[in-house]
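It is worth pausing here to work through a concrete case rather than discussing structure prediction in the abstract. The textbook approach is simple: state the sequence, then state the predicted structure, then interpret. We follow exactly that order.
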Amino acid sequence: MYLSKNLFLTGRQLLDAMNNKDEWIRTNQVMSPGSLDKKIAQMRKKLNRHNPAYITRDDLKLGHGRSEEFKCLEKILIGERQYNTRARADPQCRDVEEQVACLVDQATDPNILGRTYLGWEPWM
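Step two, the predicted structure:
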């Protein structure tokens, strides 16, 4: 029985899952192999300095890519070159410092924060 397909996993759990995916799924029984593959791919992007705005966009695209609103949401996530560091950065950041600057820019953008669900609880 799968407990949740959207279970929050720690970095350590994802590393364990990457090293022995089939055994990890059988033992933990928390998500389908396809969902785990997507979470592992997203973790690899983070470790390979991908721009957080593009990672968030790709996550959102999985569930909402066909919706009419997706294009508007994508523009908000990527930001505007004039105002947002993440919009001036490439999809893969030059270095960790640029990746962190993009993440801070995304996390503090009033255009995103003003649209965030009132009961949102960020995870660190």
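Step three, interpretation. The chain has eight helices and no strands. Confidence is low (pLDDT under 50) at residues 1-7.
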